[in-house]
Backbone:
């Protein structure tokens, strides 16, 4: 029996409630989602834990809303690490998946971060 997919969930903390529901739904369906507030151990250094989790994941899902795009910080570092992992994969591999999670119209293509804009 194959191992369940490991799915890293990247998000802005303003979206933590909605992403928490996504985490639980994935878990309920037999996947192995990774979420910082659930999977970083007490006393563990969070930056290396996040980098390791991204590198060990089968998929990196960046949960997009208007919140993360206007801010610098951890989310941007996570995306950069995921893009570095993409560079190590075959062109046909799917690893980084941007998902619009906000109700309403999706982000216009011109507002999408350039390196994510080419992804469906």
Residues:
């Amino acid at each position: 029996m194959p191992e369940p997919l490991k799915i890293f969930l990247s998000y802005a903390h303003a979206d933590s409630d909605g992403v928490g529901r996504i985490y639980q739904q994935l878990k309920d369906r037999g996947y192995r989602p990774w979420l910082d507030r659930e999977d970083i151990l007490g006393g563990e250094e969070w930056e290396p834990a996040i980098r390791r989790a991204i590198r060990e994941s089968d998929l990196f899902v960046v949960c997009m809303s208007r919140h993360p795009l206007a801010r610098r910080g951890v989310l941007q570092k996570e995306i950069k690490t995921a893009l570095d992992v993409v560079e190590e994969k075959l062109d046909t591999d799917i690893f980084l998946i941007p998902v619009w999670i906000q109700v309403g119209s999706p982000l216009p293509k011109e507002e999408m971060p350039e390196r994510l804009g080419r992804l469906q």
